[in-house]
Amino acid sequence: MPEDSHYTVPADGKKISSKNDQLIIPKNPIIPFIKGDGIGLDIWHATEMVINTAIKKAYKGKRIIHWMEIFAGEKSYNEFGKWLPDETPAAIKDYHVAIKGPLTTPVGGGIRSLNVSLRQILDLYACIRPVRHFEGVPTPLAKPGALNVVIFRENTEDVYAGIEWESGSDIANRFIKMIKDEYNKDIRENSGIGIKPISPFGTKRLVRKAIQYAIDNNRKNVTLVHKGNIMKYTEGAFRDWGYELAKDEFSDSTIIEAVFWDEYSGMVRDKVVVKDRIADAMFQQILLRPDEYEVIATSNLNGDYLSDACAAQVGGLGMAPGANISDDVALFEATHGTAPKYTNQDKVNPSSLILSGVMMLDYIGWRESGSLIIDAIRETILQKKVTYDLERQMDGATKLSTSGFAEAIISNM
Ligand code: NAP
């Protein structure tokens, strides 16, 4: 812990450690959390209550999380003068697993986004978004239950790498000239320029995580989503490197879709089918044939669009959990923002953060407690006891506060 540290390490907890790329989880792990700004406080309290109760019920006191508050965002800025103290990413790295509420994006001050900063500092290269429907949650689809997919979005490359130059700037003009002079390619005068880097290293480590997840969780297929018909050396290469990785590292446990059909007539049961789809077609597929997709691995921009589109199909971002992970650090988080107009009103839906907590429990192997929470959320929604966002779309529902919804989940455990 840094000498000027603002956080207090719980005396009875033990650190999660890592050996040979495997996490070692004690029965009393210390897990750092950031409450978050705006509605963060309300949804964190609800989440903590639900997770603690589920663990108590599942393990009868034999396991317990020792929560450790660390700081970022407005609270950190107001109390310590820093939006993101160095000790915060350092603690997340040191303790391996952490969870956070939403954070305000500071206006000015040189930080683009605290979330992006955390991802970059910790090299959290895979953004994972499971999307599933809870019966009773209003959706625009006739059969929303058919969509049950986990999206692995590459988090560090693509047009999000932040390499772009403004129209008319000296560097943009020099770049346009260089492309003309050296490669005889025309770019229209005064164009803004953005760079889209996609590497074999970045692609393969993402696809590796997605395939390993499919194997570990008995998922039937992994789909590489790309726009390789147009961008051959970035998106097309993403597809090629993905297949290459499957062949080189997972030949015993995966099978390529073409081989699956051409040589085995679809009769292989014990292997993960690796396939690919062009991004625009994929947006149709998730609407028309959602049950054919279980795990998706995709580049940064495609993943951004696709995860919100999938979330909308099952009831919106309020119900969508997420995690950003590297090889030995995992940061679980609500996917929505701070919704500042609802601050301290005990009003909003805590499901996104609670479900991120379930992902966290699964990640540390405490699946029994995660299942208790999922079943209880399902039951609570079926009873039509929901927060305002769902209540306004449902007939005959009871509107609960954030804490009331958490209590209803607990009483259904
Ligand atoms: P937002 O905070 O996600 O809120 C937009 C709207 O989404 C809310 O007004 C509300 O809709 C609905 N909503 C969000 N969370 C909800 C919940 N838990 N339950 C029910 N409804 C919920 O988006 P924003 O207003 O664009 O962003 C506000 C701030 O959050 C910004 O500073 C932004 O940079 C930051 N942000 C942070 C993260 C993060 O930390 N991961 C992510 C995105 C944005 P209704 O008005 O219809 O009720």
- Percentage of residues in DSSP E strands: 15-25%
The largest sheet, given as strand count, sense and whether it forms a barrel, is: 11 strands, mixed
> What is the approximate shape?
globular
Question: What hetero molecules are in the model?
Answer: NADP nicotinamide-adenine-dinucleotide phosphate
Which class best fits the helix and strand makeup? alpha/beta
Helix percentage: 40-55%
Low-pLDDT parts are: none
The number of E-state strands comes to: 17
Could you report the average pLDDT, rounded to the nearest whole number? 94
Q: Give the number of helices.
A: 14
How large is the radius of gyration?
22 Å
The spatial strand order of the largest sheet comes to: 4-3-5-15-14-6-7-13-10-12-11
Distance between the termini: 37 Å
Structure description:
The protein is α/β, with parallel strands linked by helices. Helix content is 40%, strand content 17%. It contains 14 helices and 17 strands. Strands 4-3-5-15-14-6-7-13-10-12-11 form an eleven-stranded mixed beta sheet, sandwiched between helices. A two-stranded antiparallel sheet has the order 1-2. The protein is globular. It starts with 16 loop residues before the first strand and ends with a helix. The mean pLDDT is 94. Bound molecules: NADP nicotinamide-adenine-dinucleotide phosphate.
Q: How are the SSEs placed, and which strands pair?
A:
Layout (H helix, E strand, L loop, with lengths): L16 E3 L2 E3 L5 E5 L5 H20 L6 E4 L4 H7 L6 H9 L1 E4 L13 H9 L3 E7 L15 E7 L9 E2 L4 H14 L9 E2 L5 H17 L4 E6 L5 H18 L4 E3 H6 L9 E7 H10 L6 E4 L1 H14 L7 E5 L4 E5 L16 H13 L3 H16 L2 E2 L1 H4 L6 E2 L2 H10 L2
Parallel strand pairs: 3-4, 3-5, 5-15, 7-13, 10-12, 10-13, 11-12, 16-17
Antiparallel strand pairs: 1-2, 6-7, 6-14, 8-9, 14-15
Helix pairs in contact: 1-11, 1-12, 1-14, 6-7, 9-10, 11-12, 12-14
The structure holds NADP nicotinamide-adenine-dinucleotide phosphate.
The site of NADP nicotinamide-adenine-dinucleotide phosphate has 18 residues, from loops.
